[in-house]
Amino acid sequence: MTKDVNSLIEQINALDYFHSIDFGDWRTKSWVYPGNVPQNTHLFSVFKLLQEIDVKNQYCLDMGTYDGLTAFILAELGAKVVATCQYDRKQFRYAHEYLCHRDQKFSSIRYIPGFHIEEVQNYNFDSKFDLIILSAALHHMLSPLVTLTTFRKLLKEGGLLILEVAFADGDQPTFSLNTEVEDPVEGIPTIFIPTRSAVEGSLKFCSFEILGAAELDQLGKENINNYKRIAFVAKAVKPSSVSNRRPQLVTTHEKSPYFSHINFRELENNDEEVSNISYSGEKYTLIDIGDFETKLPLQPNINKTS
Ligand SMILES: C[S@@+](CC[C@H](N)C(=O)[O-])C[C@H]1O[C@@H](n2cnc3c(N)ncnc32)[C@H](O)[C@@H]1O
Prior knowledge:
With 306 residues, the chain is α/β, with parallel strands linked by helices. The protein is 25% helix and 22% strand. The chain has a domain at 40-64 and 115-288: Rossmann fold (3-Layer(aba) Sandwich), CATH 3.40.50. It has helices at residues 5-13, 44-50, 69-76, 90-102, 144-154, 196-205, 219-223, 247-255, 264-269, and strands spanning 59-63, 80-84, 110-112, 129-135, 155-167, 175-177, 192-194, 208-217, 228-236, 258-259, 262-263, 284-288. Helix 1 (5-13) runs antiparallel to helix 4. The site of S-adenosylmethionine (SAM) has 17 residues, from loops.
């Protein structure tokens, strides 16, 4: 450790955070969640799914960690964590250092700043992952399907993906180009916005079995225009184990299985390491932000003042 704890606290307090991170008797100041309102509500659906997964000793990737809240929660719960971000955030580094002062288990977090999924092949990981979490980030990516196939490759068979997304209304399984629609999501860059069935279909396409979903009531209207938010938990399975595959998907997996970075026939025939991670929660929950409470660590209790 290079800094004493008091100067670290001063440095953390001087910064604006995206995440509100609760350290017990004080918390980071979030520009998104000021004052005494429910904090980190955009992560409630992730929390709802994550709290039904025992991550102790599991190898987990928090891709797009930003200020690090989800990565820190995973480490506190005993996971071995890799946390990536496109940027190198002081907010992450100082909070991480502070947590390491309090408990050595946080020092096992591997932080990879300057990380872009498009360059994932340049990085080595210790093994395939048991759990990958991507939240509030798929809409920033140039190719959602390349992202999801990459996750399928990075996960052990049986491993879990928690995918939190903004989605548009509509019955068709479509991705809209956000820069061309009349009512775009305002955050930048927001490139593609899927409907809910497009996310579900994409997960099936990428050889995932959806186990559960948690949807946020309200947040869409309040925070990001008319778009809603949902998180899925999905298990990496063999293509033939994906439920309710339409004939066109079966034919694609079987007869045209090769897409430069993923080969569905190889996935089908692989006898690779299998993860023992599991999800024990509900199939679907609609979360009322005003009512939601989680026992996950580092998440502020709304009754606490900042
Ligand atoms: C809005 S932040 C989300 C932070 C956090 N996951 C959460 O839900 O609170 C978006 C994150 O996605 C990451 N990201 C965006 N585009 C990416 C890309 N092409 N490859 C890897 N990460 C990306 C950013 O670096 C950032 O950490």
